[in-house]
Write a structure and sequence with these properties.
Blueprint: H1 17-28, H2 33-37, E1 43-46, E2 63-75, E3 82-89, E4 92-98, H3 102-108, E5 114-119, E6 121-124, E7 127-131, E8 134-137, H4 138-144, E9 149-152, H5 157-161, H6 166-178, H7 190-195, H8 201-209, H9 214-246, H10 257-266, H11 273-286, E10 293-298, H12 304-317, E11 321-325, H13 329-342, E12 350-353, H14 359-370, E13 376-379, E14 393-399, H15 406-413, E15 421-426, H16 432-438, E16 443-447, E17 458-463, H17 467-479, E18 483-487, H18 495-512, E19 520-523, H19 529-540, E20 546-549, E21 562-567, H20 575-582, E22 593-598, H21 604-615, H22 619-630, H23 655-671, H24 681-694
Parallel strand pairs: 4-7, 10-15, 10-16, 11-13, 11-14, 12-13, 14-15, 17-22, 18-20, 18-21, 19-20, 21-22
Antiparallel strand pairs: 1-9, 2-3, 2-5, 3-4, 5-8, 6-7
Helix pairs in contact: 8-9, 9-23, 10-12, 11-12, 16-23, 21-22
The structure holds adenosine-5'-diphosphate and magnesium ion.
Magnesium ion binds next to helix 12.
């Protein structure tokens, strides 16, 4: 086998050895020299800058001080012992603390000798200290200062004990560098490296660990991020190309009688321009001969259902069946009702199939479906089950996409010989950067306009202590004939306590809003679907004015008369969840309110979430903030992000590079779709490596 520098086990790096190698494998997943080189710094510090003790405050990041240790004392009880040091410069003193390595440190640290200290200031009981600082004798520090940009590596306590703190890891980087070959093989096509004036791979790997200047560091970072994103985009675009080739699409030749008659005679209100545009986009797709795979994004209440219905009518006009899949039974029921009402005066056969459909009815549906006697089938996961066979399925709508796993979605595909067109609808706006990445092989349509006549929802933050005023506001709204949601968090980890809170809340609401004047419903995830549905129906019919619920009502439910959404403990909800919940009101003509109730103490992130909610109704803006706060791994709809394998690039910050990389990948595939040009050979090689690491991706929809 050919010698490969990157594949060489990490033991062979000078200063590693079997023991440290074992730890590096266990703690950081570093097996090879290549892994070590790809353990990038997560930050750099300017080691030319020194602070003085007087300037130190807890909100500073890692800083450097120059001074002497005046005393070292072991304090605390047996198991909570720590070493306390007093560090002094000409402006004052600050406390240092070590919880580990006490014995060794107290003998090896020198008193009254100048040190360079490096660490992160913290605040504890009103005074500032630095825990586990790095210390270097000033006389030695002068010699070892490499440049102003000192890398900081993530490490673990166990590694630190074996001398592999950030500085120790840097030392390994220096050692490995001594055995570098003159150059590493390039991993991007040379024309691209040239076109973007990028560093070579060799330069980038070297500069990311030991940049000489800030500009060097930035160029190295760009090159590495670009490469990660380029291969991601290339694979997505390639799989889209493949899909276009492989799956011939059903051709919907024309809009026909059903669509036209609905449009001209039965549409209860004019379509918004955004709805018209999206229907046109979908129509064009379905006539193109390629299979459509489209993501439809539109804020809650933007009218996606109607768009779906009209597209399904086009399918029916062309002799096909359609189906609409919803994530919950409540939603499926509601869709069935809505569509049946829209289609009341038309000859379109709609059926509903859910988990609670009785056996006999279910068999009947299976039979009629296969005979082509059902035009539109609406349902839950039940639609995916094997006995469900269509005569000729042409159009699939999946509502609220993030509730369905990739695997479940792909099972719907197999319902037909020719793959049907697929429209995935989501009310969770996905920031562009993420959409380009996670759904990079889908086409995206956006409804960015609300139906006319809606008043924007007023969002207000209230502390728990203002509950009396809040209740009297509720009473006045109910007096006006409106209905109210009161939502409690129910989170798996704290399920028991949350259920308790919910029940307590429910009881006290029943007391404060007594019968017969008021009627209160409750719905939560632990109830039987039948009971849930019963309560939802009562609320829908305005037989109860208050709906106490958990987030089960988050998705899709439509009660236009409800005008107040109260979210209890709202500091515990994520932004996109808050936004989804808020979308349950503001569906009628009345002024609606969303009231975010919190306890007295709020963390920084929670405060920002509440503030964002109070300031804007724009789902995309909220999604951007959510992405910034939580990072791409957690943002709603991005659970698949494990496939991304990004080490340096950060989708929440590197949107621009995503775009540049996507453009570059698009250009390459346009010129050389099969990647046969010798200049692109390197791409094929890299893609193979990429596939080995991240696996062959399943179809995203
Ligand atoms: P979502 O996009 O959240 O699924 P829906 O499809 O449930 O939204 O639509 C929300 C409400 O707006 C429904 O009551 C629907 O009938 C109504 N609606 C949809 N399109 C229009 C329109 N063009 N003009 C007025 N109302 C509309
Ligand atoms: Mg909807």
């Amino acid at each position: 086998m050919k010698y490969d520098f990157f594949q060489t086990p990490v033991e062979f790096v000078k200063g590693v050895g079997p023991q440290r190698a074992e730890l590096l494998r266990k703690e950081l997943g570093i097996f090879t020299q290549g892994d070590l080189l790809h353990h990038f710094p997560f930050r750099y510090v300017d080691r030319t800058k020194f602070y003085t003790v007087k300037e130190v405050s807890a909100n500073l990041p890692y800083i450097q001080l120059r001074g002497v240790i005046r005393s070292l004392v072991v304090r605390g009880e047996k198991r909570r012992k720590f070493l306390a040091g007093r560090f002094e410069d000409e402006t004052g003193t600050i406390e240092l603390k070590w919880f580990q390595g006490i014995k060794w440190l107290s003998t090896s640290l020198k008193l009254n000798t100048e040190y360079v200290l490096f660490g992160k200031p913290n605040e504890f009981n009103g005074s500032i200290n630095i825990i586990h600082p790095e210390l270097e004798l000033a006389s030695e520090a002068k010699l070892s200062l490499p440049s102003s940009m000192q890398p900081v590596y993530s490490t673990t306590e166990k590694l630190k004990l074996k001398g592999l703190d950030s500085k120790g890891l840097l030392k390994l980087q220096k050692n490995i560098r001594m055995s570098f070959p003159t150059s590493f093989p390039e991993t991007l096509p040379q024309p691209i490296v040239n076109a973007y004036k990028m560093m070579s791979r060799t330069e980038a790997i070297s500069s990311i660990h030991m940049p000489e200047t800030l500009a060097d560091m930035q160029r190295a970072e760009f090159r590495i991020k670009f490469e990660e994103l380029f291969y991601l985009q290339l694979r997505l675009l390639k799989s889209k190309l493949l899909r276009m080739e492989k799956y011939k699409g059903l051709i919907f030749k024309s809009v026909g009688e059903k669509f036209n008659s609905f449009y001209h005679d039965h549409l209860p209100f004019p379509l918004t321009n955004a709805q018209k545009r999206v229907i046109k986009e979908i129509r064009t797709d379905c006539g193109s001969g390629h299979q459509m795979n489209r993501l439809l994004q539109g804020d809650v209440g933007s009218g996606k259902t109607l768009v779906a219905l009209m597209c399904m009518l086009i399918a029916i006009d062309n002799g096909y069946q359609a189906c609409l899949m919803a994530p919950t039974e409540i939603l499926a029921n509601q869709h069935a009702e809505t569509l049946s009402k829209f289609l009341e005066k038309m000859d379109v056969k709609v059926a509903l199939l859910t988990g609670s459909t009785k056996v006999a009815a279910r068999r009947e549906i299976h039979k009629r479906l296969l005979a082509g006697e059902i035009d539109i089938l609406i349902g839950t996961h039940a639609l995916i089950e094997d006995p469900v066979q269509f005569k000729d399925l042409g159009f699939v709508v999946i509502d609220e996409q993030h509730r369905f796993g990739v695997e479940q979605r792909s099972r719907l595909w197999k319902k037909n010989e020719v793959v049907p067109h697929v429209l995935v609808m989501t009310a969770t706006p996905i920031p562009r950067t993420l959409a380009m990445t996670l759904y990079g092989d889908l086409d995206v349509s956006v409804i960015d306009e609300m139906p006319p006549g809606r008043k924007p929802i007023k969002t207000i933050h209230r502390f728990e202590s203002h509950r009396l005023q809040l209740w009297s506001f509720l009473k006045s709204e109910i007096e006006l004939g409106r209905q109210v949601y009161i939502v409690y968090p129910l989170i798996e980890e704290s399920e028991k306590m949350d259920l308790n809170n919910l029940m307590h809340g429910f009881e006290s609401i029943c007391r404060d809003f007594p019968m017969p004047k008021y009627h209160v419903s409750i719905v939560h995830g632990k109830m039987k679907p039948k009971d849930k549905d019963f309560e939802m129906q009562r609320f829908l019919r305005n037989e109860t004015q208050i709906m106490v619920a958990t987030t089960v009502i988050e998705v899709g439910v439509n009660v236009p008369n409800a005008s107040v959404m109260i979210i209890e403990n709202s500091e515990r909800f994520g932004l996109s969840q808050l936004h989804q919940l808020r979308g349950r009101v503001g569906r009628g003509a009345d002024q609606s309110y969303c009231i975010l109730v919190t306890g007295p103490k709020l963390g920084n992130d929670a405060r920002l979430r509440i503030k964002t909610m109070c300031e804007t109704n724009d789902g995309f803006q909220i999604a951007e903030t959510d992405l910034r706060l939580r990072g791409p791994g957690d943002a709603e709809g991005t659970r698949q992000s494990g496939m991304l394998d990004l080490r340096l690039a950060d989708l929440s910050k590197d949107g621009q590079i995503v775009q540049i990389a996507r453009d570059a990948a698009t250009a390459i595939l346009k010129e050389d779709p099969e990647l046969q040009n010798p200049l692109n050979e390197v791409i094929n090689r890299q893609v193979e490596i990429h596939i080995k690491r991240t696996g062959q991706w399943g179809r995203i929809s």
